[in-house]
Structure formats: structure tokens, C-alpha cells
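queue> holo job accepted (3,4-dihydroxyphenylalanine)
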Amino acid sequence: MLEKIKAIREEISAIIAFSVEEVEDLRIKYISKKGKVSQLFADFKNVPVDQKKEVGQAINDLKNFALDKINQLRENLESKTESDTGIDLTRPGEPMKLGSRHPLSIVKNEIFDIFARIGFIISEGPEIEDDWHVFSALNFPPEHPARDMQDTFFIEKDPDVLLRTHTSSVQIRVMERTQPPIRSLFPGRVFRNEAISARSHCIFHQIEGLYVDENVSFADLKQTLLYFAKELFGENTQIRLRPSFFPFTEPSAEMDVSCSICGGKGCNVCKYTGWLEILGCGMVDPNVLEACNIDSRKYTGFAFGMGIERITMLKYGIKDIRHFFENDVRFLKQFESAL
Ligand code: DAH
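queue> job finished
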């Protein structure tokens, strides 16, 4: 009897089925009333008394084994049927849409690359600043209008805590802790208390550049900026420097590039002048070097600062600065290929 049970068990464990109908046939064959396993129960009455316990146990085990096997076969086939009608597991995955880089980041990285090729590194400083780094050390006299509440966001409780209005503050931080030679770019977000319009925003981004060493001259500044303009706007770009004033540079200048849209012939972007203003620059004022404990008789330097929004608007013909901050994907998606 035990031999027979073992044989049926082996038979069952070898079974495979290809359809739910086949499984049903197996159920009938083994565990229906007249099935092979049920038949064993009928034979059980002929088993000698001293073997009843062992054989009874073995038949029960076999019945459970058969039930489990049949249930498992049925389950496998049912889930397979479901995926046949629903999910095709062999299909390739949906392509995942990559995000695109923000146009300001694209232009910022391009500017980093251009200056990296002539040895500029990158340094950063805090957005929440004090008067010394944003104004005093940069040679702003105490009554200078740029300190005015109208331009600068101050903290009400403490007039010495403010949001930086320009990245020139990072010049000071770097010069305070580094002796020349210094050749660095300072990118970052700046804040001004201005009404938001198509042309101006209370938050924008600047990149500042600083080069301090022995014998740095205005000619170095001009050549560096010419190289930069040609790399950014194209080989045929020309520059012009107009005298200007900033407290932290002497002499100071503003730089125009020939209009990249009309090539200098005149259009509505350059207001028919052929030129676009893109940055302020100059030779670092000796007072600024001295404020940072750099010997102004030994060292000279140049600095420049530009707004990334403005340059990006000119480069891509964007007419409204607010686009940069709204994060409308219909706007952002257009820069996918510019990565
Ligand atoms: N900090 C100036 C601004 O925010 C820009 C600037 C002008 C930076 C001349 C400079 C510079 O380093 O030399 O308008």
C-alpha cells in the first residue's frame, strides 16, 4: 500500500498542464470521488490494524500534496491567461522623457567653459550678506544711493543683514582669504527691490569675474573681454568700451557687443544702434584691494560683472525676463536641444 502511495505521489509531482481544462481533468483523475487518491481511502479498510496509523497519515499527506499541486497549476495558468489579454511582459519599456536644462544654466555653463579655458576657477559666497561685503569694502560711500531701502532688501531688525544686490560681494570674500594671483568667477543669485516687469525682476543672476596679480593692465581686461565676446556670440563679434562709473573700479567701463541679431546693421533688439550693452567692468580700485589686505602697490586687477538673464535673453531672443522664473515647461522644453 505504501508503495502504491509513493508511486502516485511521483506521478503527480511530474505532472505539467497547459490549460485550465487539463487541470480540471487531473483533478477528476486524482481527487474526485472516484479519483486515484480517493480510491486509496476505499482500500484503507483492508490495511492491517498495526499499519493503519502510518498508512492513514501517508494517504492524507498525498491528498494534500495533490490538492496543492493542482491549485498551483491552476493559479499559474490563470495568471498567464491574464497577462495574455492584458500586459505583454515582452514589450520594450516606454522611453522616459528626460528633463531639460534651464536656459540660465545652459548660458552660465557656457560662460564657465569659456573662462575655464583661460584659467578662471569658480568661487561662491552667501546670498544673505552684511554691509561690509556688499558695500563698504567695495568703496561705496555711506550716503551712496545703492544702499537705499528702495534697492536693497534689509532685515527689519538689523540693518547689517541684507540680501546681496550684486555678486561683487564674493570678490571681497575671496580677496579677504586669498593672496594673489587670483583668477576666479563668482556666479550667483542677487536681489533688488524692483517692480517686476518684462525687463526687470527682484531676483536675477550675475556672474562676476576677478583677476588680480602683478602687472594686470586695462589691456589685459580688454583682450579678455574680446575673447569672451567672440566665444559667446561668434567670431565676428566686436566690442566697444564706454567710460562709466562704479565705486569699486577705477577707471570703469561698460561693454557693448555688436548686435548678434542684425550683425550691427540695426534692428529693434539693439534699438537701431547696432550695439548691445552686456556688462560693467574696470580696474579694481586700490581702496578695495587695501580693504582686503592686498598690497595695492604690488598688485593690480580687473573685474567685470554681467547679468545672466540679460545675456540669455539676447542669445535666444527672449522678450520677457519673467519666463525664467515661471517654470512653464512649454518654455523650458524649447531648450532641450541646447544641452
Ligand atoms: N556689480 C555691478 C552691478 O551689479 C556690476 C559690475 C560692474 C561688476 C563693474 C564689476 C565691475 O565687477 O567691475 O551692476
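queue> The two ends are 78 Å apart (CA to CA).
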